[in-house]
């Protein structure tokens, strides 16, 4: 059995594995896709102390750093069920999709999240070529340009307010007949001179010139007329979905599916910790996920030295 078993191989999981292994305890990491969301990222300019890097490069460095230690890496393995220890000090079990079962004295869940997509023509083709999901990450790339934000919930309206301070113009497109964001955010948004708000708009296509985004098409849901907006960037803000479906009913999740953790990364199940985008910790970013992953590993170590194995 492992002392610490990490599920998920993104920034949070890699940090957790390194911090655990540095304590000289038996550490394993199982990940569906080592690298996580970082693999889908092009330029990264807010990984502090590294002015610029690229996702695949950072993902390879994460894996290499884990390999510097005695960590059992199980890549391309999807966890399907978590079975809490039957008694304090007992072993927690994680069942994998391949039928195998892993046992550990502590488990760190770091399965991350995924951005909900529009699923319209052009979105895949122009991802990272104008189609973006993270305003904190990619906003500055569109300085002085025209962008759209898709989604009028809190995250969409926050993104539009944030971007309006950087870009030339923001078109916010909401599917519903009204924005769903908090009133105070809506008021702020409406006060900005370079924002156009479209409600009852369904984005139907991302347009591009083969290399980058040049516009989008949306349908007015009242009447069905199609409109084209010329722009350079599209920020999709229609939801971040935690990869926690497999944990439902086992540990406490919020209604949105985020794993509830305390300040030490402890979940509702003793010996089970969590870190990164899959949790309730606000602001989903690489440096935050790394900090939370190391914190969860230190908490797991603290748990181990205080518990008596059975
Ligand atoms: P993830 O990176 O999502 O990793 C989750 C891991 O868990 C993966 O290995 C996955 O395969 C695995 N997994 C999931 N389910 C299971 C399962 N059931 N069993 C086993 N393994 C599982 N942040 C920045 O700070 N700067 C940026 O510039 C930036 N740009 C971004 C650009 C894009 C396009 C995207 C999508 C995100 C960007 N982010 C950026 C956000 C950043 O990538 C995330 O905050 C960060 O990767 C979260 O790390 P994590 O380890 O919590 O989760």
From TrEMBL:
The protein's required cofactors: FAD
Transmembrane regions listed in the UniProt entry: none
Keywords attached to this entry: Disulfide bond, FAD, Flavoprotein, NAD, Oxidoreductase, Redox-active center
UniProt KW Flavoprotein keyword: yes
Subunit architecture: Homodimer.
Family: Belongs to the class-II pyridine nucleotide-disulfide oxidoreductase family.
Protein's UniProt name: Thioredoxin reductase
The species this protein was found in: Azospirillum rugosum
Range of the intact protein held here: 210 to 519 of 525
């Amino acid at each position: 059995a492992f002392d610490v078993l990490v599920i998920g191989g993104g920034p949070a999981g890699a940090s957790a594995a390194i911090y655990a292994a540095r304590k000289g305890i038996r550490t394993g990491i199982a990940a569906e896709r080592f690298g996580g969301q970082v693999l889908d990222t092009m330029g990264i300019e807010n990984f502090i102390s590294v002015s610029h890097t690229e996702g695949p490069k950072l993902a390879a460095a994460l894996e290499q750093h884990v390999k510097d230690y005695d960590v059992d890496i199980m890549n391309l393995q999807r966890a399907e069920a978590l079975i809490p220890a039957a008694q304090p000090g007992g072993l927690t079990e994680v069942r994998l999709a391949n039928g195998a079962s892993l046992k550990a004295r502590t488990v760190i869940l770091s399965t991350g999240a995924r951005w909900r997509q529009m699923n319209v023509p052009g979105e895949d083709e122009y991802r990272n070529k104008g189609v973006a999901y993270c305003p904190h990450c990619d906003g500055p790339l569109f300085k002085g340009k025209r962008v759209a934000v898709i989604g009028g919930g809190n995250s969409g309206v926050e993104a539009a307010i944030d971007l309006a301070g950087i870009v030339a113009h923001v078109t916010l497109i909401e599917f519903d007949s009204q924005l769903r964001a908090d009133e105070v955010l809506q008021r702020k948004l409406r006060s900005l001179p370079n924002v156009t708000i479209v409600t009852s708009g369904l984005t139907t296509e991302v347009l591009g010139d083969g290399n980058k985004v040049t516009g989008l098409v949306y349908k007015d849901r009242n009447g069905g007329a199609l409109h084209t907006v010329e722009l350079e960037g599209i920020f999709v803000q229609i939801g971040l979905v935690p990869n926690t479906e497999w944990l439902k009913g086992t540990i406490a999740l919020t209604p949105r599916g985020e794993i509830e953790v305390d300040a030490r990364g402890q979940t509702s199940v003793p010996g089970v910790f969590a870190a990164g985008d899959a949790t309730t910790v606000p602001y989903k970013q690489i440096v935050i996920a790394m900090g939370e992953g190391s914190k969860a590993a230190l908490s797991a170590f603290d748990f181990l030295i205080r518990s008596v194995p059975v």
